[in-house]
Amino acid sequence: MMIAALFASSAANPGYAGAPAAVNAAGDGQEAAAGEELCVAGQKVEFVHLNRRWPGVVKGHSYGGDQCLVTSNMNTGSFMQDLEIDFADLRVFNGAPERGMPDVPGRASPASNAVSTTPGTRATDSRSNTSMVTTTPEEVLRIASRDHDLAVARYDGKFVRVTSLPGRIGISGNSMRLYADPSRYTASVLCLFEPERMSELRSVPDGAAVTVEGDANIAGAERINIQNCHVVAIGGQSAKAAIPSQPPMGKYICMQSGQGIGDLVLSRSSYTASGKTGFYSYSAGTGKFVFTSGNYAQWGWSGVWKTDSQSPGGVPEPRIDITDGGKLNIHCYPPK
To answer: Which of 77, 225, 286, 327 could be bridged to 219 by S-S, CB 3.0 to 4.6 A?
Structure first.
């Protein structure tokens, strides 16, 4: 394979050491001819380098005309560079993440699948259903936390489909977290959505069970990331329980964007948060909390009681949602 960076100097980007050296030049004539068909300006493609696939966008033919000019941030993070790619190393875009992924046999190659695709679509004839790994957040956590090598072999670089239980998801920005436990402490699956898939993400209701799929890579000891995530099914949306006349008393575990941020201790008319006690009023008709003193009152926060079914049997799981009326979104759950 031949890759040459047309501009990537250390002066322009001190953290970048330059483009990879040329290795294994030019594939066979059939792949080169099919790859040249993909070299169309604006086309999103993948290219192979060092046995990994990388995403990029075609700018056109190289100045010499014998290679394809592709813009990519391969090995640089956010720094974009123009690369000259051999036609034989071009592939139909099939979900390769920015960090690259193993060049798995059977993924779309130009010789076998030289068709135009648009961002967010998948060439369905490039792989059979037998190549898909089906799993759950619970299984991911169980395997990844006990045997890293097994997790890598099972998930890394694979096309996976994950199904969650009702109520065990969290949505923030362009991502969805799938949790392995009812308290939603551990997000064992993080799904990352492309801009053209954001409508799918926004369509998922609170408390639903979901099935998602995409290209997985190992992220740490207990989690996989899914790039180019796609919502396959939405089901199991839990029924809402009646608003209680009085919320349960005790210590609530508070989460923001899937991370624990502290606790809220609730008494009959008072609460303690961040080491300071204040008072609140609660409406059994609306489930709303008004904090009249203490930290939450000082910060302009309010709350509302909600209940989602967080198990297949539909058992209510109480929580208090805390907000400042803007982007703040904190969920506080009572301990088991």
So the answer is: 225
